[in-house]
Amino acid sequence: MIIAQISDSHIDPESDRLYDRLNDLRCVVDDLNNLDPAPDIVIHTGDVVHNGSQEKYDLALTILGDLRVPLYACAGNRDDRDLIPKNFQTGSHAEPDSGFLQYSINDYPVRLIALDTLCATSNMGDYCAARADELNRILAEEPHQPTVLFMHHPPFEIVESLYPFQFDDWHTVEHLVRVLAQHNQVKQLFCGHTHRLSRGTIHGIAASTVPSIAVDLRFGELPAGTQLQPVYQLHTFDGKGFNSTTMVCSTKEQTGLSGR
């Protein structure tokens, strides 16, 4: 199974970088559509738009809607939690009335579970006992199915960042650790938010972040000659774990979008 991960596109009509970000997003979508073999699924790990409104999602979907494989998304701190399920596929919801956006995708050799890490008081992450209990119930449904979790805020230290801890209260991550300790089918966690490539672990499970689609917002090092090109990641499951590859897109000039 091949999972394509994209993140942090931050589409915003109010930004003077709007057309650059639309170009970056178009380049990624075109690149994904030209892959052979094609990914089985694309996951967007949050901040699809910047300060979510329906107008902004409509704009993002003029490009994301061209993807030829299923697209799923979790909510980032700049998204609107309520508008994500109105604009994207969101699988089987754990508790539809809980107020949190957590769901599972059960149609593939690897089960995917979206987590809600939004904090009510800041742009940092949060994971409360109620969300952890939801996740525990979801994982208990398929205890032998290889599973990945995807979420916006990474629950591990990003040593390269000015903000190494991406959660408002780091102790809330202990709720997630408590659940992971009860289930051994989780193979990896895929995250966004940091706008850079980074890797870590949580309870001995590999976790990673992917660079921002929006090149103007990206941090961290990339190979020489690729600093101005959008990137995404492919995660290929070999039956035991994932092999991840950072994919560099074609130049933005080939996408057909220009101007400001």
Number of E strands: 12
Helical fraction equals: 10-25%
Which stretches of 5+ consecutive residues score pLDDT under 50? 253-260
Over the alpha carbons, how many angstroms does the gyration radius reach? 17 Å
Global outline:
globular
Our count of domains comes out at 1
CATH topology: Purple Acid Phosphatase, chain A, domain 2
Order of helices and strands: EHEHEHEEEHEHEEEEE
Sheet/helix structural class: alpha/beta
What is the terminal-to-terminal distance?
39 Å
> What is the tally of helical segments?
5
Largest sheet: 7 strands, mixed
Q: CATH superfamily membership, which one?
A: Metallo-dependent phosphatases
Overall pLDDT level: 93
Which CATH class is shown?
A: Alpha Beta
Short description:
With 260 residues, the protein is an alpha/beta fold.
Description:
This protein is α/β, with parallel strands linked by helices. The chain has one domain (2-255): Purple Acid Phosphatase, chain A, domain 2, CATH 3.60.21.10. The chain contains 5 helices and 12 strands. The protein has a 7-stranded mixed sheet, covered by helices on one side. It has a 5-stranded mixed sheet with strand order 3-2-1-11-12, with no helix packed on it. Strand 2, helix 2 and strand 3 (71-73) form a beta-alpha-beta unit. The radius of gyration is 17 Å and the shape is globular. Mean pLDDT is 93; it is low at 253-260.
